[in-house]
Amino acid sequence: MAEAFFVESQIPEQKTIEGILFPAVLTPNPSLPLDRPQFLDAVRAHKPHLESLLRSSGAVLLRGFPVRSAADFDRAVDAFGYDELPYVGGAAPRTNVVGRVFTANESPPDQKIPFHHEMAQVPKFPAKLFFFCEEEPRAGGETPIVLSHFVYKRMREKFPEFVERLEKLGLIYTRVLGEGDDPSSPIGRGWQSTFLTKDKAVAEERAARLGMKLEWTEDGVKTIMGPIPAIKFDETRGRKIWFNSMVAAYTGWKDARNDPVKAVTCGDGEPLPADLIDECLKILEEECVAIPWKQGDILLLDNLAVLHSRRSFEPPRRILASLCQ
Length: 325
What we know:
The chain has two domains: 2-147 and 288-324, 4-Layer Sandwich (Double-stranded beta-helix), CATH 3.60.130; 149-285, Double-stranded beta-helix (4-Layer Sandwich). By secondary structure, the protein is of the alpha+beta class. It is globular, with a radius of gyration of 19 Å. It is built from ten helices and 21 strands.
């Protein structure tokens, strides 16, 4: 039985939402100490149990297991057996660490990263995300998470006409990229690393595959994506979800090249109402769960079910990530 290795635990920050603990938290069985190979074998053997928890809760935190380094994390992700998703079209500056493991968004520690579904602004997005705490923050730096269907439900109750408009028209995302990465910006990924090439023709081809238009400038390129759906249907769970980067783009896509108000518009090109963005941000903050990171934590998210963000922090902090199909 999975319970022989993985014990379902409770921590103070969890919430009970619609009768389900969010996130699910698993810790080792104290009477069955696991070394690293045994932990990896247990993940492989009990993947159906882990996936059922992920399906019901949307997020699973594994805490206290023998995972200490980027290489350990890479092996743990591999043990789950999901195919890797190449990071093509995403905005965040990231560095490959080992295997299928990257740094999480490397924007400066004083900056918050607003709530978003990973790569919601492009058609091909990861189904699952893994985060790993290699070095816990001195202070702050949580990765708050929130259930997307619950955000949709609250927004629909409060702003039915706006949500109906979003469902009908979708969103357009516009971002201006330099040639190289800008580590001072939360969306500072340059076009060469965004499209994994230095060849403009190859970048054009990869953008076209995403349905993205490119407008080249003297020192970079403007990318235009959409209209793309802002509300999706989660077929696994049979419910509508708030699947977009609206708040993230409107409040966070700001740097020397980008104006957040122009970064995201309604699918007809009309600006989004600032007051509704503020209200959505309040709902996200009210409903989220923010668990302080502990060294060795692995957080597995269903990208359809859950939005995530990042709070500002006092260094050091090193969170790694892996994207899966």
